[in-house]
UniProtKB/TrEMBL annotation:
InterPro entries: HTH_LacI (IPR000843), LacI/GalR-like_sensor (IPR046335), Lambda_DNA-bd_dom_sf (IPR010982), Peripla_BP_I (IPR028082). PROSITE patterns: HTH_LACI_2 (PS50932). Gene3D superfamilies: 3.40.50.2300, lambda repressor-like DNA-binding domains. Signal peptide: none annotated. Coiled coil: none annotated. Keywords: DNA-binding, Transcription, Transcription regulation. Residues 312-333 are annotated as: Disordered. This is Putative LacI family transcriptional regulator. The keyword Transcription regulation applies. One of its GO terms (molecular function) is DNA-binding transcription factor activity. Residues 324-333 have a biased composition (Low complexity). It comes from Arthrobacter globiformis (strain ATCC 8010 / DSM 20124 / JCM 1332 / NBRC 12137 / NCIMB 8907 / NRRL B-2979 / 168).
Length: 333
């Protein structure tokens, strides 16, 4: 029976049919632990997926895409959150390995590698999410964060904004590699436009939406006030929305946020975002992991997935001086 259930070769069609009929009649359910001991290729048909927070909409969408790829390979996905705690990350990886998962897709704590965790995972196929593997021979799949933030800067500059606040981590203080890339990409575009970093209000190390709300409210109450805000993460975007609404400025200061979120189009105005391709990231991460598990031994590669600007209203608010300028077409009657 086990050879039929595990799909092993050299079993006659007649035998396969008899075993299938017996399975249906007896309502047989295979024992995964016992099956793992006997499977010809040594696999358990399980993957580990570990990120900061499974409740985050982006992480949930990535997981869903991975599950779709795994379903086609008759593989189950065991998922967990490490909460940016390296000790918890290590413990969960050890738990995955104790369950003999065939591979792990990992979004490292704080965007960095816990070398203790990586040492534990050696010998297991590994793909990184959102972090580039420095000195680690592994594939990585991540959003092109610098280019995405550059899109936001180009968009705001094109509307006439010159005093744009940046809300998010910066390279010198960021444990979050992705946020650091967003800062570099955004500031590079402003520099190309002749705007120096000293002219840009920077709010960094904001813990959550509430701390972002507090700091942005303080910024817009003190002069000189920015005409636009770029937030490098969804918590900052939520804080910006609250601060502007509470101060009656949600229709006078532009906001572009990095990362989409549910119901962003229902705000007043709708929130313009740089949207990550969660489905594409999850699909490619799973494809790379299965390729490694199947024996692909090529050089590890980093796959940068483009992000997309979604215009919904908040990012299309012009600075007041620019909004007062009539267009040529507006003057024709």
């Amino acid at each position: 029976m086990s050879r039929v259930v595990n799909g092993e070769p050299n079993v006659s069609a007649a035998t396969i049919e008899r075993v299938r009929q017996a399975i249906e009649r007896l309502r047989y359910q295979p024992n995964p632990d016992a099956a793992n001991l006997k499977r010809a290729n040594g696999r358990t048909l399980t993957l580990g997926f570990l990120v900061e927070n499974l409740a985050d909409p982006f992480s949930a969408a990535v997981l869903r895409a991975i599950e779709e790829e795994a379903w086609d390979r008759k593989t189950a996905v065991i998922s967990a959150s490490h909460g940016c705690d390296p000790e918890r990350e290590l413990q969960i990886i050890n738990n995955f390995l104790g369950r003999r998962v065939d591979g792990i897709i990992l979004g490292p704590a704080k965007g960095r590698h816990s070398f203790r965790a990586l040492e534990a995972a050696q010998g297991t196929s590994l793909v990184f999410l959102g972090a580039l593997p420095m000195g680690v021979p592994a594939d990585a799949v991540t959003t092109d964060n610098a280019a995405g933030a550059g899109q936001a800067a180009d968009h705001l500059l094109g509307l006439g904004h010159r005093r744009i606040a940046y809300c998010g981590a910066v390279p010198a203080s960021a444990g979050d590699v992705a946020a650091g890339e967003r800062y570099r990409g955004f500031m590079a575009k402003l520099g190309q436009a002749g705007i120096t970093s000293s002219d840009i209000p920077v709010l960094q190390n904001l813990r959550d939406a509430e701390s972002a709300r507090h700091e942005i409210a303080r910024l817009i109450r003190s002069g000189p006030r920015p005409t636009a805000i770029f937030t490098a993460g969804s918590a900052g975007t939520a804080g910006a929305i609250k601060a502007l609404r509470e101060n009656g400025m949600n229709n006078s200061i532009a906001v572009v946020g990095f990362d989409d979120f549910p119901h962003a189009d229902l705000a007043d105005p709708g929130i313009t975002v740089i949207a990550q391709d969660a489905e594409g990231i999850g699909r490619i991460a799973a494809e790379r992991l299965f390729a490694r598990m199947d024996g692909f031994s090529g050089e590890p590669a980093t796959h940068l997935i483009p992000a997309t600007l979604k215009e919904r209203g908040s990012g299309e608010i012009r600075p007041r001086s620019a909004s007062r300028r009539p267009s040529v077409s507006a003057g024709i009657s």
